[in-house]
Amino acid sequence: MPGSVPQWSDPDVFELDETDELPPEIAADLALKGAPGDKKRRRDEPITAKPPEQIPDLATLLGIAVGSVGGSEREGQSRMAAAVEHSIGSGEHLAVQAGTGTGKSLAYLVPAIRHAVVEATTVVISTATIALQRQLVDRDLPRLSKALADALGRPPTFAILKGRRNYLCLNRIHGGAPEEPEEGALFDPFAASALERQIKRIREWSTETDTGDRDELVPGVTDQAWRQLSVTAKECLGVHRCPIGTDCFAERARGEAGRADVVVTNHALLAIDALDDRPVLPEHDVVMIDEAHDLVDRVTSAATGELSANQAKLAARRCGRAIDQSIADRLDEAAEGIELVLQDARPQRLEEMPQALGGSLTALRDASAACMTALGPERKEDPEGSSARKLALALTEELHDNAVRLLDAFDEPEGQRRDVVWISSEPNRPPTMKVAPLGVGGLLRERLFGQRTTVLTSATLALGGSFDTLARQWGLPPERKAAPAADMASGKEPPSDTGGPKWTGLDVGSPFEHQRSGILYIARHLPQPGRDGLPPEYLDELTELVESAGGRTLGLFSSMRAARQAAEELRERLKTPVLCQGEDNTAQLVAKFAADPETSLFGTLSLWQGVDVPGESLQLVIMDRIPFPRPDDPLASARQKAVSAHGGNGFLTVAGTHAALLLAQGAGRLLRSSNDRGVIAVLDPRLATARYGGFLRASLPPFWTTYDPQVVRGALTRLNATT
Question: What is the CATH number of the domain that holds 647?
Fold first, then answer.
């Protein structure tokens, strides 16, 4: 499997980039030790106190791990762990659906750790949410490291790694580059003073923190403030050029990751690692992708380019500090031109490039290219000038590349285009041009599945009863099993030019008895949802359901408008309290909801996937409608059109998959422990009556289903009386 060498400051994993010169101390160290590729192991010291043949088998290690957390072995967990171990040994990719309560984290962590220790390699764990990253790093991995130390001969090591922008830049803290308030703050004294206060907080925190990790700054600060004192990978001077490089938080995190058995990261950084020719993650041959249902969206976001007039003006200001002002002024004039054009353009997906917009983009492309030429090669004897130049060059290159990509997107005939272009207008933000890939399957197939063994897992992967729905988006062929090659020492099959990557899908179920623990209620008697808010019949149904449950309700709505309407109306009708997303920090709202069983919480997208409230505080989950993407969503509509143009069912493939994922994630909020009981109520009758309803229902856990409102209200009343 092809390897790569990360460009970090650790001498054991150092590689030059472009015309870099090694500092003498690193060059001497490398001369003594040899090149990184000359040795297999990551460390000079012995990898383990035990030879690989003396390390216990997977079943023994899993038993130790489960016992360490006070649990008991579960059939689904054991099946999943065995499948993960087989995937690692055979090289066959694996998709595992593991319902809530399975213990899937241990099921992939234990075989991952065993492989890392035995083979003296690193395994990467990728997650979608900060919450799961913190759970793994703060709870699961420390417990496992302690529990497995004796059996493995040493404690397995782990580290968390994020994108460089997530770490404080000490060079900027100490004045190595100017702070750059955004245009709005330049003229608004209140915005400027608020920004100054936040920057002061960050500076004070920088003297206390050991990691420089933004997530450890509580309470947090705005993106605008954090950007003043952090850098992207392209803006970074590099550890051996930076005056404070030896103390760099990001380099320290990367150094720890390069020496760890297990590295926890996120889907965004995993995507960047796949997109960039220069590796970001440590060399690894196995990756575990948890929350894999979010992989396509996160990779798409990482591959999406943006271009705005403000971005171009900022690039011009940065260039003005480093090059002849007249050249920077050309870029500023081009920025004003694109601003005028975008002000008159309505938000929409572009089928063709309008002439005026194309002309403005061309001017911007050429002006940014002139600035890049003027910035020229780096002057290594001028650290301060190098910082200003690097900041200018990074943003100007991004601006230039996005302008080129936007212009090139329309070169091919409509049915053969790879990118989708649209104009976006969001509240409190100027109009922005965006360009995103029509699909990311090809990228994932080539740069992820083609490079390393991959295990994908989530509670929601088998949509409509099949893994193939998501597999198509990942770039995998229809499911087929690969037979292990018994005569090969590694157990892996030789490369083949025929077909796509080989993979297996496995559903290990859930320890919860869904038909005994939960009811799926579909309000088939209600009218179809409209576009003008919640109909009166929906508000009446909501009132009766929440009243029967005695509160204890999580309301998942398709829009904030609907959530607010429901909250305001039900506060007038009910005696129990109703919270609504947006009225406070979401984490605080969830905490209040969990603390008081009579409280209900209404909200939108982040609550569909981010709430974990076991016990009596959550016994009713209400979804107002099937969560199809908006008809005017530029990316979804383009993907739907492309599928239809090739003879597929665009609506079911794109909109149906999106809805099925969210429905399943929303339904997953109900049963969070083996003692939980309750109701999933879907007010949208189309789940029962539409032709696509069967596909969506097959994506949900196997709850007992009813369409009778009296039956469900009676069940909720009885449940309320017993808690």
Answer: 3.40.50.300
The Cα 369–Cα 361 span in angstroms is: 12
Strands 553-556 and 600-603 come out as parallel
Q: Taking the chain (723 residues) in consecutive chunks of 10 residues, what is each chunk's mean pLDDT? A: 34 38 41 36 50 91 91 90 97 95 94 95 93 89 95 95 91 72 50 81 92 89 90 84 86 91 94 84 95 95 95 94 93 96 92 95 97 82 72 94 96 89 88 96 93 95 92 87 37 48 93 93 96 92 97 95 96 96 90 95 88 92 96 93 90 94 95 93 97 95 96 95 85
What token pair was written down for 525?
């008697």
Count how many residues are written for the chain.
723
Which residue among 244, 266, 288 closes a domain? 244
CA distance 519 to 539: 21
Spatial separation of the C-alpha atoms in residues 199 and 193, rounded to whole Å? 10
Dist CA 101 CA 701 (whole Å): 13
For residues 78 and 528, give the distance between their C-alpha atoms in angstroms, rounded to a whole number.
44
- The SS3 assignment for 262 reads strand
Question: For residue 505, what are its two tokens?
Answer: 């899908």
What SS3 class is residue 417?
coil
Structure tokens at 146: 């302690």
**Dist CA 714 CA 549 (whole Å):** 9
CA distances from 694 to 173, 208, 454, 578, 649 (A): 57, 56, 31, 33, 15
- Split into its structural domains, the chain has a count of 2
Crossing angle of helices 75-90 and 58-68, in 10° steps, is: 140
Omega before 527 within 30 of 0, i.e. cis:
no
Asked whether residue 563 is assigned to any structural domain, the reply reads yes
pTM, 2 dp: 0.86
Q: Where does a domain end: 219, 244, 269?
A: 244
Nearest to 419 by CA among 347, 351, 472: 351
Phi and psi, residue 680, nearest 5°: -100, 120
Contact yes or no for 719/615 (Cβ under 8 A): no
Q: Is residue 276 part of a domain?
A: no
The two structure tokens encoding residue 618: 């959550």
Nearest-CA neighbor of 687 among 624, 640, 630, 644? Answer: 624
Backbone CA torsion sign across 686, 688, 693, 697? positive
Spatial contact of 507 and 462, defined as CB atoms under 8 Å apart: yes
Q: Edge-to-edge, what's the strand order for the sheet holding 305-307?
A: 305-307, 432-437, 419-424, 348-349
Q: Exposed/middle/buried for 377, CB within 10 Å: 0-12, 13-18, 19+?
A: exposed
The boundaries of the domain holding residue 701 are: 514-722
Between β-strands 93-98 and 453-458, what pairing exists: parallel, antiparallel or unpaired?
parallel
CA dist., res. 127 & res. 420, Å (int):
26
Across-strand partners of 422?
Answer: 349, 434
Tell whether 291 is covered by a domain.
Answer: no
**Rounded to an integer, what distance in angstroms lies between the CA atom of residue 479 and that of residue 204?**
54
Closest CA to 9 of 231, 170, 245: 245
Q: Under DSSP, is residue 126 helix (H, G, I), strand (E, B) or coil?
A: strand
| Residue 211 domain flag | yes
